[in-house]
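Aim 2, interim progress. The first record below pairs a target sequence with its C-alpha cells.
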Amino acid sequence: MPINPDEELRLYTTPAERELYDSLATLFSIVVSLEYLERAYVRDSISAKEYTPACTRLLSQYKGILKLVPEREFPSLEAFMERFRMDNPAAVHRLKLGVPATVEHSSGDNNGGETGKSVAEVTQSFITLLDALKLNMRAKDQLHPYLSDLMAGYSRFKASAEWEGRGRILHWLITLNALSASDEITDEQSRQMLFDIEQAYNEFFRSLSSGPSTSGD
C-alpha cells in the first residue's frame, strides 16, 4: 500500500493509546525542563527564590504524571531515558532526590529560619516520622510526606549543611523516591531508618544546645 506523504502519521489508533503517548510526551518534557532549570540555577542565571517554586512544581508534576503511565511503559527513570536516548544527569539527580537543591543544600537565603517556631516545627516533624516508623508504617506513600516535611524544615538551619543527619535524611529520601507509591521498605530497612532518624534527631538537639542557633519569634 503506497504511503501518502501528505497524510499525518499517527502513533496511536485508539483514545487510550493517544492518552499514553501524551503522558509520555509530558514526562519527557518535564525531565528536559528540569535539566535546564537545574543548570540555570547552578550558573546563577536564576535566584533561589525563583528556582525553588519552579523546581517544586516540576517535581510535583513528575509524581502526578507517573500515575498515568503504566509500569510496563515506565519500569524506571533510567529505562525511560535510555529508551528515548535522553542525557539529563542533573534532572535524574533531582528526580531521585525529590526535593529542590535549596532543600538538599542549606541555602543562604533563609535568614530568620532558625527561630523558635522553626525549632518546634522540625521537632514535630522528627517526632511524627519516628512515630510512623514505630507504628510499622512501611509504604512510600505513608513515609515520604513526613520525610519531605522534615527535610524542608531541617534545611532552613544553615548549620545543617555540616550535620551528619543531613546525609542520613537524604539517603532515605533517595531510597523512598526509587519506590512506587504502594511499595514498602523491608523490616530491616525500617529498623535502619528508625535508627538513622533518631541519630539525626539527637544531633539536631545537641547542635541547638551547643550554640545560639535560635533567635526567637
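The second target in this work package is listed in the same format:
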Amino acid sequence: MPADPMPADPVAAEPMTAEPAPRPLTRIQKRNIDAILEAALEVFSAQGFRGATLDQIATAAGLSKPNLLYYFPSKEAIHLELLNSLLDDWLAPLREMRATGEPRDEIMRYMRRKLEMSRAMPRESRLFANEILQGAPRMAGTLAVDLKALVDDKAAIIRGWAAAGKIAPVDPHHLLFSIWALTQHYADFDVQVRAVLGPGHDPFAEAEPFLDTLFERLLRP
C-alpha cells in the first residue's frame, strides 16, 4: 500500500505578502521635519555635536522635545541625516567634472563652485568641518568608501590631463585638497577673515580673482 503523501508545510504554503508601503508624510509632518533639520543645522554648526542638545534643537524648531523625538529617536539620528544630505550636496560639483571637458576650465569651474558653496552654505561647511575635527565618528565609513572612490576617479582624470600635457604636472589628490582648503576656509573661519580684512570688504568677492590667478598659474603647462 503506498505511503500517504507528506502533508504540505502550512508555512511554506502561505502566499508571500509584501510589507505595506510606508504612509506618505502629511504636510504638517514635512513642515516639522524641515523645522527640526533647519534648527539642528543652526545648533550643530554653532555648538558642535557634543555641545548641542535635543532641548536646544527642539526650542529652535519651535517644538516640544517629545514632539521632536517622534520624528528622530536621538541627537545622533538628526546629525547623521544632516551629514548625509550635506555630503550629497558637497560632492555634486566634483561629480560634474568631465573627462571630456577642457581641463583648466573643468578645474576652475569646480574651484568656483566650491567657493560659492562656502558663501551660500557656511553652516553646512562648519557642520562638516566639526565632524572631521572630531575624527568623523559618524562618517568614517562613508569617507573611506564613497568619498575615496569619487576622489580617486577624478584624480585619475586629472592625472591623465597632466600626462597629456594639458595641465602642469600636479599631484591630483593634493590639488583637490588645496581647493577644499582655500575655499572652505572662508566659511569655516569667517569671523577671523572679516576681523583681519576689516569693514567694507566682501571676502568671497575678493577671494575669487585671487584664487583664479593662483590656480591658473599652478595649472598652466
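Residues 79-219 form a domain with the Tetracycline Repressor; domain 2 fold (CATH 1.10.357.10). This observation will shape the mutagenesis plan for the next reporting period.
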